Structures are given as C-alpha cells and as structure tokens.
Amino acid sequence: MREKRKEAKNRRARLYLITPGAFAVEDFAPRLSEVLEAGDAAFVQLRMKAFSGAASSDDEIARAAEILTPIAHGAGALFLLNDRPDLVRACGADGAHIGQDDMTVQEARRHLDRGHILGRTCHGSRRLAMAAGEEGADYVAFGSFYETGTKAVSHRASLDILRWCREEMALPSAAIGGITPENAAPLIRAGADYLAVCGGVWDYKSGAAEAVRAFNRLLDAAHHEKDSSGGA
Predict the structure, then answer these.
(1) Cys-Cys with 190: which of 52, 71, 99, 162 at CB 3.0–4.6 Å?
(2) Are the CB atoms for 77 and 42 separated by under 8 Å?
(3) What would the pLDDT profile of 138-193 be if each residue is shown by its tens digit?
(4) For residues 140 and 129, what is the distance between their CA atoms, to the nearest angstrom?
(5) CATH homologous superfamily of domain 2-226?
(6) What is the pTM of this model?
C-alpha cells in the first residue's frame, strides 16, 4: 500500500471541476465544453441544486447527466454525481461523492458497480479519512481551506491534513473550499492530489476558461519543480 502511494506522489496533481449549484443545462453545456477545452481536469462533479436552493429532482439530475457526461468523457474527465450514488447506474455516471451527512460509504457502495468511483468528505479529520479508507472510499476530500460562497462552511482544514494524507494514506486527497488560482499553490505543495473547484472557475474575474488555464499552469509548474527536485 505504501509503495502504491509512493508511486502516486510522483504523479501530477489535477483539477477537479464542480458544477455551479443551479443552472439551465442547455445553456451550461457549451460553457462546460469551453472550459474543458481550456485545460486538463480529472473529474467533473454534478452538484446540482434547484434555483430555490432545494435538491434537484431525479429527472433533472438524469437530464443534466445525459447532456454533460459525454462532454466530460470527450475531454478525458470522469463524471461524478454529488450525494446521489443511487442514481449513478441509471445516469451512466462514473461514480459519486458523498458528504458526512449523507449515507455511509458501505451504503453508497451498494448502489455502485465495482468500477465506480466513490469519494468521501472528511472535513479536516484524520479519523474520518482513515474510516473512509477502511470502508472503501476511493479518495478523501478535505476542506474548507478558504472562505467560500458556494456553501455554508462549518469545518476548516489546515495544510497539515494534506501532508499527513500524502505520507500516511494510500488514498489520494482532494482539497476543497474557496480555491482560486491565486491561493492554490500552498495546497499543491502540501500534497493535494486534486484541487476541487467551483466558484474559483465559474466566477473567475477573467472567465472560467482562463481560470482552468491558470490552474493548469500552476499544476504543471509544481510537477516540473517536483521532478527537478527528485520527487521530494
């Protein structure tokens, strides 16, 4: 397990793109295409809420997934559903992400096929991260690292949790919460495998596509620096 993680440390970190909460899918689809053409992303997570802030209906999620999944796949990104592992098979998605207030990892796995990906929010907790790994999660997400307008923040995480995960866990980590091209560098240096970003892309002052380009420049630079220093 430690050897697999050692190999993973030498891989380039990647962007993890989260959709806005409320959007009209027909209007959003070309925006997503443009953004994914601008640079690499490992995942696109559908975090879809109704315009009222309530959870979207199953039909609305399925419709959005039907339109957006091929766009993600065409750009080499995997498509995940937020909070809804029960819809993954029906939607043809690649997996799901669940929070601590959702179902357990074991319950979520019962909705998924063997090849599906499952991520778990772990706030800033080593205990929750270890439990997620033991229960069968494929990655753990830590945050919020910065102030964010995407959702109410009740948990904050420190860079130490990323360093600890990088050294002690076999699972990759995603950093989330208020991440922008201007504040992402410390998270990359601390060992985040993915930068999970919503507002830092869609609300970026120079446009969403430019945000993706800026993130990828940071990720490329960090990877080259790591290579030149021998992967330390």
Answers:
(1) 162
(2) yes
(3) 999 999 999 876 665 667 899 999 999 999 999 999 999 999 999 999 999 999 99
(4) 6
(5) Aldolase class I (3.20.20.70)
(6) 0.92
